[in-house]
Amino acid sequence: MSADLPEAFEPFALEVGGATLAGVETGEGLPVVFLHAGVCDKRMWARQMVAVADIGWHAIAYDRRGYGETTSPDEAFNHVDDLEALLEALDIHAAVFVGCSLGGGLALDFALRHPGRVIGLVLIGTSVTGAPWNSTEAEAMIEAAEEDAFERGDLEMLNKVQAHEWLDGPRGQSGRVGGEARKLFLEMNALALSKPDLSQDEQRPSAWHRMSEVAAPSLLLVGDQDFTTLIDRHEYLSEEMPNAFAAVLEDVAHIPSLERPDLVNSMILQFLDAIEGSGSAEDDDESDI
Fold first, then answer.
1. Which of 271, 272, 273, 249 is nearest to 261 (CA)?
2. Locate the AB hydrolase-1 domain: which residues (predicted)?
3. Is there a contact between 236 and 122 (Cβ–Cβ < 8 Å)?
4. For residue 282, what pLDDT is reported?
5. Of the four listed, 192, 212, 223, 276, which is most buried by Cβ atoms within 10 Å?
6. What DSSP designation does 63 have?
7. How far apart are CA 102 and CA 79, in angstroms?
8. What is the pLDDT of residue 288?
9. Residue ranges per domain, the chain?
10. What is the DSSP string of 96-129?
């Protein structure tokens, strides 16, 4: 298991098709499933997992195909199907899902497919399948640098540009976030960039115009240093999702679990306490669709 994760975490491996999904879990109680961003892996959630386990929840995180310690051949797959297989293997019917970026998009797609299996959602700078993307002029310049590094096959430069994009934020100075957070981001993203391409990821149906159907209690978070589109999307979701509470985090970009773990922990714990107090955690018998 990675040295970046606490020794108390129990590793597990799950075979799905030809893939082996690598994950960790800690704590006991109702499950909280953490879904990582597309420039990270399960290690981005280490401090949040410790925090929720300490107050009596069962924390689970895993590396999706193409990330971290998970291995996969280039075969047809669907991330929602993989998540379903993971929950079945761990005997989890319903859970709270915490997702950042692409991890949030996966949580939303799962919620639309299985509304009765979602106790609550925490979505941070979330992706939404089929959502539009628009860039400001300054953001487009960073995206052009990313595309140039990708086309040249310069993975080291690509990693640095993506650290600026997602860790520092497109509005911030490159290197704004340093220390262990930057070191871990670069390690996680370098590992993802080095993985073989998976060309058969099945396209999931657009969820953009279905957000009003996501009725689970939801906490929506976005950093004010994130991309303009993601901040605008945050406002749209806060209006469309009927049981959402939304907050903008000051001086934070796209990966606040690394940049401000104390703040993210506090907000997740408050949300879990509210869910437990409302009885929603016990109401998991709604039929699936």
1. 249
2. 31-261
3. no
4. 47
5. 223
6. P
7. 10
8. 35
9. 10-132+197-282, 137-194
10. EEEEETHHHHHHHHHHHH-GGGEEEEEEES---T
